Structures are given as C-alpha cells and as structure tokens.
Amino acid sequence: SQQGCDPFAQTQRSKLQHRRARINQQINKEMRMRAGAENLFRATSNHKVKETVALELSYVNSNLQLLKEELEELNSSMDVYQNDSESISVPMIPLGLKETKELDLLVPLKDFISEHYGEEGVLFEKEIKEFMELRQAMRTPSRNEAGLELLMEYYNQLHFLDSRFFPPTKTLGVFFHWYDSLTGVPSHQRALAFEKGSVLFNLGALHTQIGARQDRASLPGLNQAIDAFQKAAGAFNYLKENFSNAPSLDMSAASLTMLVRLMVAQVQECVFEKMTLLRAQNDFLARLQLAQEAARVEDVYSLVHQTMSQPHVKDYVPFSWTTMVHVKSEHFKALSHYFAAIALCDCPGECPAWRELPAH
C-alpha cells in the first residue's frame, strides 16, 4: 500500500507542517472556548458573571490573534520551500498543506454495508482498514511525484466511495474535519465533497511546493517549475468551478481566483527566466522580446496584486505575499523599460526604424 512521508522526519518542511498542525489544534481549542463563553454571555443575566465572561472572551480573542499571527508567519516562510542550490533566484510563493483530523470509518461503513446492501459488514473490514490507512498516509505526502500519486489515489478512491456509500437520501453521520490553509480555522461537513475538495486543494498546494523547490538556474528546473505551477493553477481552477459550497475561506471562489492568478503569474515569471537563459541578449530583437516578456510578467503580477487587495481577500492573504507580488510587479516593469532602453541605446544600427526617426 502507498506510504506517506515519515511523519517524524525532521526536514525543514516537515517541521513547518508540524508547527502548522499544532497551531491549528490550538486555534480549534480557543474557538471552542470562545463559542462556550459567548453562549454563556448571551444566556446569563447576572452582571458579575457577564463581567467575568467578557474578560475571558477578551483573553481568548487575544490568544486567537496571536495564533493567527504565528500561522501567518509560517505561511510567509517561503525560503523553506525554495531550492537549496548555490545560484541566487527570486523566491516563489508556495502553499502549506491543509491539515485534517483522524477519521474512523470502520463502524459507519460496516453498518451501511449491512443495512443498505444486506451483506455482512464484517467481511469488508480489511478493505475499510486499507482505505483508512490510505487516508492516514495522504496526510503527509512526500514533495515529489510519489506524493502527488498518493493524493490522486486517495481522491480516486473517494470518487468510488461517493457513488456507493453516500447516496443523497442518506447520511453516514460522519463529519470531515479540515483546517483552513491560511488561517487555521477548523471547518467540518458531512458532505464527501468537502473531503474531495480538500484533497484537491492539497494536490494544488503540493504542486506549488514542487514548483518552488526547482533549481531555476537550469533549463530542466525551469521546465519542471513551469509544469508544476501550471498544474497547481489547474487544480485550483477545477476546485473553483466544481466545489462551490466549501465552508472554509481558502476554498472560496475569491481565494481560489487569487490562487489561480498567482500561479499563472509564477508560470509567466519562469517563462521569462527561460527566455533569458536560452537567448543571446546582445541583439536588438532579442532585447525587445525580453522587454515584451517582462511587461507581460508585470501585467499578470499587477492583476494578482489587485486581486489580493480586494475586500474579501485583503485581510486573509499573508502580508508578505502581497508585498512580494507588488515588488515583482514593479521589478518586471523596470526590467521591461531596461531591456527596451538598452536595445535602442546599444543597437542603433540594427533598429530598422532608427534612421526614419525625425531629427530634433
């Protein structure tokens, strides 16, 4: 059967993911405490109790704020996901994987088999346990092709499970719990679509991590980065078009639109880097093409920056992402002017229209 990464492996990436999981659990605990305190505040008429509960609420809210800031700091740790080659390259923005709670499907599925199909549920224990092991493994996918295959295998199994065990008329009474990738806020739904959507989100997120780790100073690395970011964009776009009722913010239409545009911009940046690697940059047309390509990268990053500044996305996206995207937009704008300028300054003899310019 497929295996995930060793959950105790001490790589930088796994340490980061462990810290995310711990923060997720703490956020969950604080939110439950807040819900209880709010209920008590509404229910009681005793002034002293109200004062005590209000104090507890302010304490819980400040704890939540600190935890969310800690999570934002982790989401800004872009260097952990980049390649460790000696060559200097501009960092790309990857996503951390969504965390989920363990799930015991043994009893619900056995009961459903007995009741719905009229067969002994106990006969299928081995298969159900294998399915649960696959779910456990896909929580820690390795950052390579094997990790992608693991997530896809689990997603395909969910597709078969959906048609046989989740009829629209009946519920298994099982809740699927997942944490928001960027805020750590827990969400749960009975619908298997939430589980499928969350796995697809992680498939896209893993592609972003694979893209970010490539050595973009080499042609093979650039090609792999382009492929990974394109596939990430495809996964987030598919999610946006097919899973419209997700309860978590990271899977809302506004967030997914932003993620698709961000991935498209990162593809475009890699295409520019590929062009600088492949072409001799000392002739007029090559420099003009680089100027055009840089202007295209500026356009897509400018669109990402606008999208990140929208009301529903602005407070949600890590500040470092918005800053990075803004810097890249300005950087590529400058590069487009630079390449156009050196084309005109250094190659006047090669410019076909140069002699026809009016004299001043």
Q: What do these coordinates show?
A:
The protein starts with 11 loop residues before the first helix and ends in a 14-residue tail after the last helix. The protein has eleven helices and two strands; from the N terminus they run H-H-H-H-H-E-E-H-H-H-H-H-H. It is mostly helical. The chain has helices spanning 12-43, 47-75, 106-117, 125-137, 145-165, 192-213, 219-242, 253-278, 284-308, 311-314, 319-346; strands at 176-179, 186-189. The chain has a two-stranded antiparallel sheet with strand order 1-2.
The main sheet orders its strands as 1-2
| SSE pattern | HHHHHEEHHHHHH
Helix- and strand-based class? Answer: mainly alpha
Mean pLDDT comes to: 84
Strand content: under 5%
How many beta-strand segments?
Answer: 2
**Percent of residues in helices:** 55-70%
Low-confidence runs: none
Work out the radius of gyration: 25 Å
Main beta-sheet annotation = 2 strands, antiparallel
Shape: globular
Q: With helices defined by DSSP (H or I, 4 residues minimum), what is the helix count?
A: 11
Describe the oligomeric state of these chains in a short phrase: single chain
Terminal CA distance reads 76 Å
